[in-house]
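Anyone else keep sequences and structure tokens together like this?

Example one:
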Amino acid sequence: MTLRRIFRERFGAQRALIGLLQTHPNPSLAEMAAACGYDFLILDDEHGLFSTPDFHQTLQALGGSDIAALVRLSGHDTQAIGRFLDMGADGIVVPNVSTSEQARALVRAMEYPPIGTRGFGAAAHRATRYAMDLTDHLKAPRQGAALIIMIESAQGVANLEDILSVEGIDGVFIGPSDLTADLGCPRDFSTSAYADAVARIERVASARGKIFGTGPHPGYPIEALIQRGHRLLLIGTDMPLICEAMSAQVRKARACL
């Protein structure tokens, strides 16, 4: 959108970017996240409860703010990429990317033919302010939208060099729970297998000049992640965050009874 900073431009900042995962549709909650100062918000189509109108309304609610609005796909639906970009998403997050072939298909879905496979519907959608910015859009169709892949399997870790050699991949998220599960140690973040996988992702992403990150989890607090070079920090999820705040408030009140 014309009045917002391009998310990819923020990658050049020296400090880490902090974000929130939103799983339950509520434009006011998203607007609140922007007001509270998060750098990015991920609207979750994988585990979240968003419908198509929910996504559109939430992106509209964020249109006047400077928070970057990303959408995590439910899978590898390349047609969905164009749909969310048409709605004005600042970036796409794709779960469990394991091969360079998958990565190339995702990159192509970000661009119109003949370069890519994205269907053209820009003149009807908010990404071009309903065709008022169509001329500028056609000069740079991707409009700076970021493509972030998630590494959540041993295969993805093994193939990471090939995956990140695909031009058009902007960054990497580590999915700790799914990665440990695939490594045979569900949610055990203390194993050498998990530590080695994380270190390899960090090393390859750094060597390829890609921004990378994850959420804080046992053994990997925010301070340690920053020291290790993580600059995409997903520091919370809406429902657990709200539940934690409510529980703390109730405990504090009951202590006074």
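And example two:
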Amino acid sequence: MILVAGPYRSGTGDDPARISDNHRAIQRACLQLFRAGHLAVNGEDLALPLAELAGSRQVGDAAFDEVFHPMGRRLVSRCDGVLRLPGASAGSDEMVALAEARGIPVWASVDEVPPLGQAEEARSFASRT
């Protein structure tokens, strides 16, 4: 299971169209990883419906903040690796730091993610070092 972390709000000025573009880029990376045999997840697709249920009316309000980054933190604690998409993002940088602290692989592009069997080997190697 690979967490895809990339800019969501960063650099958008909270413009909904730009946020949507960022979200779509994250989802496209998930699809590429899925097609390569991996289980790819992103915090946005899980957190946004929960934030709405919690009463969020806009990006960055209290209900949004209650769910959004905590979801990513919980996911990275259970993933086998993190794909960090390009672009400034404090939240994504935090996910990378958490992954590194756990000793799981972090990749900078979909092309760097090894085929499914090799990803298991990379995770096993990381846990031994």
